[in-house]
Design a protein that fits this description.
The chain is of the alpha/beta class. It has two domains: 7-56 and 302-405, Aspartate Aminotransferase, domain 1 (Alpha-Beta Complex), CATH 3.90.1150.10; 71-299, Aspartate Aminotransferase, domain 2. Helices cover 39% and strands 18% of the residues. The chain has 13 helices and 17 strands. The strands form four sheets. It has a seven-stranded mixed beta sheet, sandwiched between helices. Strands 1-2-3-15 form a four-stranded mixed beta sheet. A four-stranded antiparallel beta sheet has the order 13-14-17-16. α4 packs parallel to α10 (286-299) and α12 (351-360) packs across α13. It starts with 6 loop residues before the first helix and ends with a helix. The relative contact order is 0.15. Its cofactor is pyridoxal 5'-phosphate.
């Protein structure tokens, strides 16, 4: 018999690097979640943009069940049909010619950065190794990716830090021009900075990055771990911008809740990861790739992608209506169903107060930094759930305002 556990159990047995909510979800269906006490929550957090199709989507449940009766894991000593089918889907639907599978966004970025340096080494020599990233970016928690990320607090205490990494202001073309050189092997950009505040790149910035990379024989990497797989209303956000990278990292929504990551690249760049240069034990396992293949199939349906755009407007209209009552947000921004509500100076640094108040109203939301409330719901969230969730958020905002203003 399983041991009874509670939120207090976390503090007794888990490493204290997280501070999870006071309740424990035990069941989910669509955009609804139930906790140990049977309370029903509306989920606007989406597992941090992972649950692209909500909880227990019937087609995903069927796919998991079918594949679980066939084959789970082989390692990459052998290939497998679901991995090859998923790679073929991604090649067909994107700029990419080649795919590498792993288990997470951090691993996908790690592979991307390693490939960029290896490609530069192979074609231009060891001096061409520098990576340009953006301030407030986030690319993962490995020692390499956390340092490429533009939030120094996440790298503190884990030094010495990898060298050859420069950070510039996001959306600043002049800063990129000043930083890039013939020693640059790659420029990495999130089309929408997720953890950095749900801040979209300008089309001009991405276009300039493409042109500057071409001029300096550097590779352009798009980190689409959070923005990919329909989150922004196209299969990948780069397609909305019309700017094509050389390497793209994908994860989160790709597996719909099953851990998987992917690095996509071109036939020009891919050969630098020759046999033995990089690897993973679990990456591309049949169970994960079978589920991801079904996710890509469903998200690619025209009605799903069109629905993301319509639901974006419903969210924005609802948030603006709330703000008209309480005047707590100075900007509502984002793309598709990755939306950020930036708090006014009155509430600066206190976005988490809104998260906690939402929890009290049985609503799950996120933050992005200290001053942005973030929403990343299911891409197929029903309109009635959006409306009910926003009504609960209205009550949460009212509670924060009452506590602040009296």
């Amino acid at each position: 018999m399983s041991k009874q556990v509670s939120r207090e159990t976390f503090d007794q047995v888990m490493v204290p690097n997280y501070s999870p909510a006071a309740f424990i979800p035990v069941k989910g269906e669509g955009s609804r979640v139930w906790d140990q006490q049977g309370r029903e929550f509306i989920d606007f957090a989406g597992g941090i943009a992972v649950n692209a199709l909500g909880h227990c989507h019937p087609e995903l449940v069927a796919t998991v069940t079918e594949q679980a009766h066939k084959l789970w894991h082989l390692s990459n000593v052998f290939t497998n049909e679901p991995a090859l089918q998923l790679a073929s889907q991604l090649v067909e639907k994107t700029f990419a010619d080649r795919v590498f599978f792993c288990n997470s966004g951090a691993e996908a970025n790690e592979a991307a950065f390693k490939l960029a340096r290896k490609y530069a080494h192979d074609h231009f020599g060891a001096d061409k190794h520098e990576i340009i990233s953006c301030k407030n970016s986030f690319h993962g928690r490995t020692v390499f990716t956390v340092n490429v990320g533009g939030q120094p607090k996440y790298a503190e205490g884990f030094g010495p830090n990898p060298a050859g990494i420069t950070h510039i202001e996001f959306n600043n073309i002049d800063a990129l021009k000043a930083a890039i050189s013939d020693k640059t092997c790659a420029v990495v950009i999130e089309p929408v900075q997720g953890e950095g505040g749900v801040l979209p790149a300008t089309p001009e910035f991405l276009k300039a990055a493409r042109e500057l990379c071409d001029q300096h024989n550097a590779l352009l990497i798009f980190d689409e771990v959070q923005t990919g797989v329909g989150r922004c209303g196209t299969l990948y956000a780069y397609q909305a911008y019309g700017v094509t990278p050389d390497i793209l990292s994908s994860a989160k929504g790709l597996g719909g809740g099953i851990p998987i990551g992917a690095m996509l690249t071109t036939s020009k760049v891919a050969p630098s990861l020759a046999v033995g240069t990089h690897g993973t034990t679990y990456g591309g396992n049949p169970l994960a790739t079978a589920v991801a293949g079904k996710v890509v199939e469903i998200v690619s349906r025209p009605e799903v992608l069109a629905g993301v755009q319509a639901k974006h407007q419903r969210f924005v209209d609802g948030l603006n209506a709330i703000n008209a009552k309480y005047n707590v947000f100075k900007e509502i921004r984002g793309m598709g169903l990755l939306i950020g509500a930036v708090v006014t100076d009155e509430f600066a640094g206190n976005a988490r107060d809104f998260l906690k108040a939402a929890e009290a109203q049985q609503l799950m939301v996120l933050v992005a930094g200290l001053s942005v409330v973030r929403f990343a719901p299911s891409l197929v969230v029903e309109d009635k759930d959006i409306d009910e969730g926003l009504a609960r958020f209205d009550a949460a905002v009212a509670a924060v305002v009452a506590a602040k203003r009296g």
